[in-house]
Amino acid sequence: MEEVYDFQEDDIGRVILESSEKVGSLANQSSVQINVEGTEFPVAVNLDRGKISRAFINLFSNAIRYAESRVDVLLKYDGSNVYIEFNDDGPGFKEEETERVFERFFVGRKGDTGLGLAITKAIVEKHGGKIKARNNISGASITVVLPRSAKPV
Ligand SMILES: Nc1ncnc2c1ncn2[C@@H]1O[C@H](COP(=O)(O)OP(=O)(O)OP(=O)(O)O)[C@@H](O)[C@H]1O
Ligand SMILES: [Mg+2]
User: Fold this and answer.
1) If you measure from the C-alpha of residue 63 to the centroid of ligand 1, how many angstroms do you get, rounded to a whole number?
2) Cβ of 114 below 6 Å from ligand 1
3) Which ligand is nearest to the CA of 88?
4) Which of 1, 53, 89, 143 is found 20 to 30 A from 125 (Cα to Cα)?
5) Ligand 1 atom closest to 139 (CA)
6) pLDDT in tens, 117-141
7) Domains identified in the chain and CATH numbers
């Protein structure tokens, strides 16, 4: 079934903060601290708010499940794009996993149904964006790149 998208200019930082609030109690239950940086100034992206929220909540939920104690989300941008990095301090991906985690029904250790990242990727691509998984020093890192809107919010 084709999903209907309703695009509007919106401040991407606000959508990140709103999503982080929605996973707040999940984080509390897991004793995980969420830290969001880079959202001080409005940065416009042409987006479907409900869909992008769902994508971010999927990424937050994974990060919280694997995190030892913290999830750090960082918003960066240049003239063309916004870059949203989700970092956790968990075990990270297995090396051979990073290419496959976006496949439908791919489930690794402590996984669930294996759909979250496939859905997230589809949403990001509908926005003309990209998503990449890698490991950083302390755990898993997922970066979402979205085209920045020329219009102000
Ligand atoms: N932050 C992370 N750290 C380590 N492994 C991860 C992380 N996020 C995802 N993964 C791996 O990628 C797999 C796919 O993630 P995905 O979100 O698509 O599915 P899921 O979380 O297993 O189930 P759900 O459909 O409920 O989201 C996971 O099963 C897990 O092995
Ligand atoms: Mg998931």
Assistant:
1) 9
2) yes
3) 1
4) 89
5) 3
6) 999 999 999 999 999 999 998 899 9
7) 8-147 (3.30.565.10)
Ligand with an atom nearest the CA of residue 118: 1
Mean pLDDT of 10-14: 98
Give this prediction's pTM: 0.97
Side chain identity, residue 48 = D
Q: Are 76 and 68 in contact (CB under 8 A)?
A: no
- Regarding the beta carbon of 150 and ligand 1, being less than 6 Å apart is answered no
Question: Cβ(147) to ligand 1 under 6 A?
Answer: no
Residues belonging to the chain: 153
